[in-house]
Amino acid sequence: MKFGGMQMKTIKKSLALFFSIMMLISAIPISATAEENLNTCTNLYDSLSLSGELKTTNNDIVSKLTTEIPLTEEYILDIDNNRVIESMNLSSDDVDSFNKVNYSYNSDITYESTFDNGAVVSFNNSMEMVAYSNFDRNGANSQTVVKNQDISSKNNATIETLKNEYNIDDSYELEIIEDNGDIKYCWSKMGYDNIINPYDSLTIRIDGLTGEIVTINRFDDEFDTNEINISETTAKNIALKTKDNFSKVTSCQIGYVKPNFFWKDTNKIYEDVKMVRLVYDITIDDIYKVYIDTKTGENIGGDIIKATNNARAYAYSGFKYSTKSRDLANTYLKKLGYSSSSVGINNTFKSNPVLSFVQNDTKAYGLYIDCHGSTTTLATNSQTILTTNQVKGNWHFVFLDACSTAANSNWPNAFKINSSYSKRAFFGWTTSVYTDKSYDFCRYFWPETTNRNHSNNVRDAAVWAADQVPNNSDGSASTPIRFYGDRSYNGRAY
Fold first, then answer.
1. Helix or strand or coil: residue 69?
2. Residue 52: exposed, middle, or buried by beta-carbon count in 10 A (0-12, 13-18, 19+)?
3. Cβ atoms within 10 A of the Cβ of 126, count?
4. Quick one: pLDDT band at residue 150, thresholds 50, 70, 90?
5. Could you give the CA distance from residue 56 to residue 274 in angstroms, rounded to a whole number?
6. Cα–Cα distances in Å, from 389 out to 393, 411, 413?
């Protein structure tokens, strides 16, 4: 479904033959022997590769403004005919910029209009609105939190308009959560056996202080498959054969994911594939994710968790995006005015570079770490990197890209970053997070810290970036970022 015309998405010509063949195959009864042979299936990967639909990601810069598009009468008419924009009292006459935007991950955003009141409205190629953001929090001086039932009638009217325009009906499940002091509404499409498709969803974030809508995001990728041709047992057996060091399946559930072919080539990072498949979402050894297509039996992706706890540390060396993550952070820390460098950490370091930096560098004010974590410890698979009681100094900008580092205030307090200090920012994850989603977040977050196309400060940059990434297949937040510190801080070195 699309905004406005509500047209069903057409199947790409390059894949039409493949899916026709697969439909014929699926109609043939599968014997036990044939079912077990499905672990050799590579049809989807090969088809996408040959058709050019599967591409590797080479550009680390997520968003980049290119040629500005003049506001022709046709564009203005398309904007004016948008009922959501009208309901939010936005007018094309207020537009002071209209730009073509390149996003390489998880977004249909192609064009963006900036309005006088600070709102940024994003459109796809068909001039259908797919996102909105307005982080003008000038009215957020009051510490009175707006409760769910106190949301203004204006917001309610806009929400109903959004639901009507996007055809959000009873086939979508609503979840209301509190996130970083805000209220977040999320409608997700229900599919097979009442399983949600997070890639077909509408999310609306409302400021917990002002009661104003700050972000709207429409993810509009319908599922390509909705059938099960292989058993759970077969899927588990296929998953266990992915790596020699895999020992046992610790959980298995059915869900919707996008193929990322995580295990195909550890040296390649694939761009977002514009299709959604029903899979057995299998966790192995409490660390690894493997996605087995329920229709074809093909291994179409997976992930690695960034978690540890006080008793056990998990495999840091398996992080697929560690080098790119730290290089991305290093690039934008420099743009924020820090004298920064990118340093790798292996599993057998003799001298701890992080500990030395944190305890001995008197000018250390900024830090980003991509590793395993808990509420008290950062680690590789075999060694402790840092604990809360080892932190020294007064820090300005810290992002611990590791699980549960923001589950409580242990880490921000250790870095002396909380609301009592001005010009300080701490970011971490409230719970477990996977490498694919966290890197996805970073590709949005870091450029936004300096570009400020959608936000006014680094806190809002993180909130905006998190909202650009669809939820997990079970409906939980895929990028559970939490901020501590000065909400108005711009992140720049001082």
1. coil
2. exposed
3. 14
4. low
5. 14
6. 12, 9, 10
How many Cβ atoms sit within 10 Å of the Cβ of residue 389? Answer: 8
Inter-residue contact 257 to 291 (CB < 8 Å): yes
Q: Give the count of alpha carbons within 13 A of 249, CB side only.
A: 20
* Cα 306 to Cα 432: distance, rounded to the nearest angstrom: 7
* pLDDT band for position 461 (cuts 50, 70, 90): very high
Please list, in sequence order, all residues whose beta carbon lies within 8 angstroms of the beta carbon of residue 110, skipping any fewer than 6 positions away: 100, 101, 103, 122, 123, 124, 125
User: How far is the C-alpha of 56 from the C-alpha of 307, rounded, in Å?
Assistant: 27
* Cα separation, 123 vs 157, whole angstroms: 21
- Listed in order, strand segments (DSSP E) in 146-244 are 172-179, 182-190, 196-206, 213-220
Contact indicator for 223, 276 with CB cutoff of 8 Å: yes
Q: What is the C-alpha separation between 388 and 444, in angstroms, rounded?
A: 28
Helix axes 13-26, 43-51, angle to 10 degrees: 160
Reported pTM: 0.77
CA distance 129 to 81: 11
pLDDT reading at 318 higher than 70:
no
343 in Cβ contact with 355 (< 8 Å): no
CA nearest neighbour of 206 among 106, 92, 88, 91: 88
Pairing of strands 213-220, 397-401: unpaired
In the structure encoding, which two tokens stand for residue 439, read together?
């890197």
